[in-house]
What does this fold into?
Amino acid sequence: MMLVCFRRGIAAWLAMLSLAGAAFAEELVIPGSGNPEYVLTQLAKVFNQQQSQHTVSVPTSTGTAGALRDVEAGTASLGRVGRPLKEDERKKGITYVALGRDPVVFAAGAGVTVRNITPAQAVDVYSGKLTDWRELGGDPGPIRAIGREPTDASRQAIARSVKPFENIVYGENVKVVHLDPELIALLDRFPTSLGVLNRSALSACTSKVVYLALDGVEPTAENLEKGLYPVWVELGLIYKLDALTPAGKAFLEFVRSPAGERILREHGVLPAVSKN
It folds into this structure.
């Protein structure tokens, strides 16, 4: 009888532990920018596979503004951004953690034979002066240029290095889109297209995409590290110290671990140096 009671006690204790574990389980949703969306989705997949307590998901982009709004309001433990925080944003008690630098790429469709573009050529393409790939030394074909709005992080990154992009007036042939998935869909659909986006996000393309060298320099993490490639965005995560949940802490630790850094590099991102 004592043995039966003992076993029942153990079973009850294990059941209580199971319930306690379930109580601490969390579904972490990370809203925000489209720039880190793809690579964070890959990080979340591996994180979810390696442990069973928490589940991380990365929804469709609401922009860096969406991440700031949700984290400030306390409706999100973690948010994702495509740039470092501004001083006024930091003053709101929001903490920023850099994930790494991601090369911003002039990416062409599968039918393009050009492999290099100069800053002057890029300006001429987007201002409508160059409209055929043969003018850049490739096979003939219309350049279906895809532009972004002035507030887009990738466009701003280009403008920091190629100054005419700051106030460029797009040619009539340029199709302006506001979301990364729209740009990716056009790159997939039109073999002679040209767009600008950070490299890791381009991994979402389902067709072959040609990464153009900029003035002869390939858009790689290695060239970023050497200081050779000048155009990049910095991807990051944001949170409030008093609102960071256990799942948020666990995911942050994973992202900045050797396994997380390896995934970032596999997708062309130069990981930030961990300070932990």
Q: What stands out?
A: The CA atoms of residues 56 and 124 lie 43 Å apart. The first helix runs from residue 2 to 24. Residues 1-23 have pLDDT under 50 and may be disordered.
